[in-house]
Amino acid sequence: MGRAPCCDKANVKKGPWSPEEDAKLKSYIDKYGTGGNWIALPQKIGLKRCGKSCRLRWLNYLRPNIKHGGFSEEEDNIICSLYISIGSRWSIIAAQLPGRTDNDIKNYWNTRLKKKLLGRRKQSTANRLLKPFDPNGLEDDSCAPVLSNSALERLQLHMHLQGLQNHFSFSNNTILWPKLNHLQEKMVQTLKYFNQSPSNLVQPAHEQKVDFCEPITKQEYLEISNSKIDDQLGNSSWDIGSNLVDSNIEKASTFQNDLIDGLINNKTIGFQPPEDSVADFDCFKEMECLKESMIWWSSDHDLEYSKAASSSSWNYGLGYSL
DNA sequence: AACAGAGCCAACCGCTCATGC
DNA sequence: CGCATGAGCGGTTGGCTCTGT
Predict the structure, then answer these.
(1) A129 plus A20 within the same structural domain
(2) Contact A308/A173 with Cβ under 8 angstroms?
(3) Which positions ≥6 away from A184 have C-beta within 8 Å?
């Protein structure tokens, strides 16, 4: 025999919570706690709600010290950095932002932050990314859909930011410079910071030249890899997000940004991760079919730059192993 | 003023994993 | 050991609000 049924689905109220319901739930939990059983809780306090609904309402709205809206730029940076590193693990990201809920961060990302950072892209290009373009007019369904939304977004975001970062190495070619908004400037600075640690894979971007950096050694690579081994359950040294614990978030974020930079700047810095590890890095693995389709821009004015930047990234960073 | 479309967000849905029986 | 349920999570949606025409 299992446990008692969750709730009588036909007899539970749905939709927005009333102030009375909120008050009931809050006063009960304030007095007695959840009792470790959300399913039984609504019956105890006479609420015609599903236990799951009560839990959600408490966690996302009624819980003390919950903050709504008004995300700071520091919070924006943390969300962006972690999203690039671990994807849509909203609960993990929320754990790094006291007072924020996973639902809030998820909504904030989907409705504002993503657009704020990536800007707009043309729908036609978006479609091409999901179904690679055949120059002969024949569609290749064997490849579609090639990217999960999460992987695609993470790649877009990284490429976009990588593109912004690369501007520093084109400092003599001001015509290529985009107009960065304040947040983008902050993100570039964040990436520059990541690039300087933990092993100085890349010098400060404004000092970059073509042959600016010593190749990373195998020993350095192993040191970086081992820096996240606190995660005892890691399935793959590249799938950093799957088993993150709090103490590793910052390390992992730094580490993976370095790794991505290593991939993209591979030809320059001589960084060669193990092939089997690359195979596990889903974000890039999924890109197998559509490298040449990747043309991104944050606004129409920097279209030409973005073409050059993304093309350059693929030619120099990904061709080696895919 | 009225309408349409876009943006936003609270809440629901459905899935996975853990755990009780 | 296997089944059923609980907890938690990410994805999705319905409806309200805002903005533009």
Answers:
(1) no
(2) no
(3) A117, A161, A164
Q: Per DSSP, which regions of chain A are E strands?
A: none
Is strand C within 7 Å of residue A127 (CB)?
no
Phi, psi values for residue A87, rounded to 5°: 80, -155
Domain of residue A229: give its range.
114-318
How many CA atoms are closer than 13 Å to the CA of A305, on its beta-carbon side? 23
DSSP 8-class letter at A34? -
Nearest-angstrom CA–CA distance, A322 and A318:
6
Task: Name the token pair of A214.
Answer: 């010593």
What is the dihedral sign for C-alpha A316, A236, A189, A216?
Answer: negative
Instruction: Count other C-beta atoms under 10 Å from residue A206's C-beta.
Output: 10
Residue A154 lies in a domain: yes
Asked if A203 and A215 touch (Cβ cutoff 8 Å), the reply is no
Residues 6+ apart with CB under 8 A from A117: A80, A157, A160, A161, A183, A184, A187
CA of A71 to C1' of B5 (A): 27
Residue where the block lists tokens 């977004």:
A153
What value, to the nearest 5°, has the Cα angle with vertex A273 and ends A189 and A277?
105
A223 falls within a domain: yes
Q: Which nucleotide has the shortest C1'-to-CA distance from A41?
A: C6
Q: Residue A131 falls within a domain, yes or no?
A: yes
Instruction: Indicate if A139 and A257 belong to the same structural domain.
Output: yes
d(CA A220, CA A199): 7
Mean pLDDT per 10-residue segment, chain A (322 residues): 50 84 86 79 84 87 83 85 82 85 86 72 40 37 48 69 51 42 56 42 30 35 37 33 41 48 34 38 42 36 32 28 26
Q: Which nucleotide is nearest to A2 (CA to C1')?
A: C4
Cβ count within 10 A of residue A98: 8
How far apart are the C-alpha atoms of A312 and A251, rounded to whole Å?
Answer: 28
Q: Which bases along strand C come within 7 Å of a protein CB atom?
A: 3-12
